Each structure stands twice: as C-alpha cells, then as structure tokens.
Amino acid sequence: MKDFDFRAAETTEDALAQAGADTAYLAGGTTLVDLMKLQVMTPRQVIDINALPLRSVRTGDDGLRIGALERMAAVAGHPQVREWYPVISQALLASASQQIRNMASMGGNLLQRTRCGYFRDVSAPCNKREPGSGCAAIDGVHRAHAVLGTSDSCVATHPSDLAVALVALDASVELRSTDGPRTVPLADFYREPGSTPERENELRPGELVTEIVVPALPWAARSTYLKIRDRSSYEFALSSAAVALDLKGDSVAGARIAVGGTGTKPWRLPAVEEALTGRPATRETYEQAAERATEGMRTLPGNRFKPTLVRRTLVRALLSLGD
C-alpha cells in the first residue's frame, strides 16, 4: 500500500470541500482497502465519510429512499424493503458474506470495482487499470466474464447484485458536489467500456453518492432476485436475474427485468419485458420471451455457455413468481 493522506469529514460540505482530483471516499472500505493493498488503487488522499448524515431507509407513497451510507445488512433486513421490494432484499442477501454486509455501504456497493482477476493483478495488462495496456482476459481465462456490452478493450463483468435489482426497478442515484446536487438514473449512471473502460460511471471527481431513490411500483412486491454461481456463498454471479411481474389474472400486465453476471454493467432487458406483456403467464410464454435476452451477446470460447444460462435463469425466476 502506498502512502496517503487520511482525513475524516464531519459534514457533507466538509467532505466535498476537502476532496481533490486524486481523492477516495472511505465508507465500509470493503473494496477500497483491498484494492489499495494490491496497489490497484493508489489515491493520494482518503476521506472517511462515516460521520456524514447519510444513513436512512424511508418508504412512502413516492417510493423508497435509502441513504448511501446505510449498511447493506440493515437494508436487507428492513421489514418494508422485504415486503414491498423483495428483489432488493434478496439481491443484498445474495451478496458477499454476513460480515461484509454488516460493513459495506449501499453507495459503496454500487461503486465497487470489477472482480476480474487481471484487473487486480498489477503484473497483467488491463485497460481498465492502465489504459492502452491491453485486455488479458480476451485471450486468457474469461469463463466468468461478460457477453453483453463488451468491447475489444474490456470484457470485465459488473459485480454488483444490488445494482441489477435497482436497474430493474428504474432507480436513480442522487449525487452531490461543490456545484450542487444532481440526480442520475442508475441505468444511465454506468458506462459500457467502449474504448475507455477506465471510465466506469458518470461520477465526477470529488462527487458523492448521497441517496438511492426507487420510484413507487405497487407490483414490485411480486419480485425476485435469482443468482446462479459456482458455490452458494460469497461468490459472484455467472448469471442473475432481477424480475418484477405484474399479473392480472392469468396474464402478464407488465414486467421489469434486468440481468447480472453477464454484462459490463447491470443490463436491462426491455425486449424481454415487451415480449411478456399482454401474454399468458405460462412457461411457454416465459421461454419464448427469454429468447430475446440473448440479442447482442458476444461470447468468447470460455463463456459460450452463458446465453443458455441466462435464458434458463430468466425462466426459472419468472416461474417462481407465478405461472
């Protein structure tokens, strides 16, 4: 770990005023500290923001609002989140271990870096870590890597389960800088790698995530998160699906669907949603709609199983919500 200047902020204004171009904010530290030890991230200044008043879970007629510093475990166990937005609770419970969920913040989870082994190995070329050096995963070990949103510069998979659930529910993040606040839909917050994979999101230097906003969606109570992985605990997704389903009698009146473990960012599937809407809520409908999920997929030799796995994950998730 390289030397850095450490400070603690008492207020949001204080944190923003102290931040510079090479500053990292410290909340739970479950990603940042690991990457600093590996010298993948080497900020010159670290600002502890845990004293900021950004912990809350509020529900109402306008939806759900979660403070960025609220811990994952607290949100996962919140009674109203579990009842009205089970897809969020389930995505959180499928993430990491109980100990990490007790430490990790909601905002930090959304900003975590990829788990690509080449990104974390400073001896390997990685365009995300060192622009222009190349992508070792393309010709290397890429079984767990992305098949949606990839480029010739990067095939790293986005790691967050929570982000997949939130993108499915049209959530936004509220951001704050010295220029003032702004709100960005989470689906637009994350960037595809293109030729600049080092730019993972729309967060500006020194800007803070302050709150997560999920709009009201009455039928979000019929939602689920299904995660397929190599082992049942503390493992990242090979494929996952966040699904909210509006059933009217025996028909699908509406659907919200996003997938994880397969994209360079949380991947919304509007074509699948459209294929479901107005159709009978049956296995046949779900299987036909799931075929649309693989449009645009670009596989590599080691992850050619993923299109089939994504389709099966979606069908299983949909069936769990009623047929």
Shape: globular
Q: Describe the strand arrangement of the main beta sheet, using strand numbers.
A: 4-5-8-6-7
The Rg value, from CA coordinates, equals: 19 Å
The CATH superfamily of the domain at 219-320 is identified as CO dehydrogenase flavoprotein, C-terminal domain
Description:
With 323 residues, this protein is an alpha+beta fold. Among the domains are: 5-51, Uridine Diphospho-n-acetylenolpyruvylglucosamine Reductase, domain 2 (2-Layer Sandwich), CATH 3.30.43; 219-320, CO dehydrogenase flavoprotein, C-terminal domain (Enolase-like, domain 1). The chain is built from 13 helices and twelve strands. It has a five-stranded antiparallel β-sheet. The chain has a four-stranded antiparallel β-sheet with strand order 9-10-11-12, with helices on both faces. Helix 11 packs antiparallel against helix 12 (283-290) and helix 12 packs antiparallel against helix 13 (306-320). The longest helix has 15 residues, at 306-320. The mean pLDDT is 96. This is Xanthine dehydrogenase family protein subunit M.
Could you provide a short overview of the structure?
By secondary structure, the chain is α+β, with helices and mostly antiparallel strands.
Features:
323 residues; 4-stranded antiparallel β-sheet; globular; Uridine Diphospho-n-acetylenolpyruvylglucosamine Reductase, domain 2; Xanthine dehydrogenase family protein subunit M; 13 helices; alpha+beta; Diverse_Substr_Oxidored; Enolase-like, domain 1
